[in-house]
Amino acid sequence: MSHENINQINNELAIEFYDLLEKLYKITTDYRFALNIGDEYNFKVYSQNLQSEMQNFYWFYEKNRLTSDLSNKALLLVNQFNKFVPYLNNFSDSPDRKSKTAQEFAKQAEIEFGVLVEMILSYISEIKPTVLRVQEKLEEEKLTQQRQNSSDNNSEININPHIEVNPQINVTPQINITVDISAAIELAKAQAQNSNFDDELLKQVIDRLEELNKIAKEAMPKETRWNKAKNILKWVAEQSIQVASIVIPTIIGII
Description:
Elements lengths: L2 H35 L2 H25 L5 H23 L7 H56 L25 H13 L5 H19 L4 H16 L3 H14 L1
Helix pairs in contact: 1-2, 1-4, 2-3, 3-4, 4-7, 5-6, 5-8, 6-7, 6-8, 7-8
């Protein structure tokens, strides 16, 4: 197999693994939120989704364990999930969930779950630059192919000198719609100020949003912008789901 083919396979696996990570992170966010608010119905739904997604990671490991280092990361995630599950089950099966023993199980389950989320975010941060490079390259190749196809088509057109041009045709100008990231950040600030954050946490959230605003306004490649934003993402991983719901959409918006 040529070096070029190997690179293509690795790039495809990186994108596949990254997509799995993003989906898993979304599920863990929904799962934790349902758990925190005591939504038992959605908690069961998200539990099933979480188990199904972890199965996808195990399949990724089995499929690629001989060809890609990413399979090791997939297996580590599965193993971490398996550390979390027994503590959760012990807590759920406790006859008295308010007992000291049950609360210890709940505490340990939260710790192991937190480690799982940190691993997910760490892998997203690690793989994101590669995925951005691959996506940009694919987009460039797509545009190059489109230009080539357009050039080939134009070279085959036989021009009829007797065609009359209708001067009454009106051309509707294309309207490009852009999103003002500053407006999005101001909206995020308003959401934070309307939340029940204490003064210290509110200041931290506002400071991070201001930092994202500065990053968004700087002219830089997507990869550099992501490298600057990922430290904020690590901070978000240590906060509540409410903080994540305000800050993460802004991070996504600037990259």
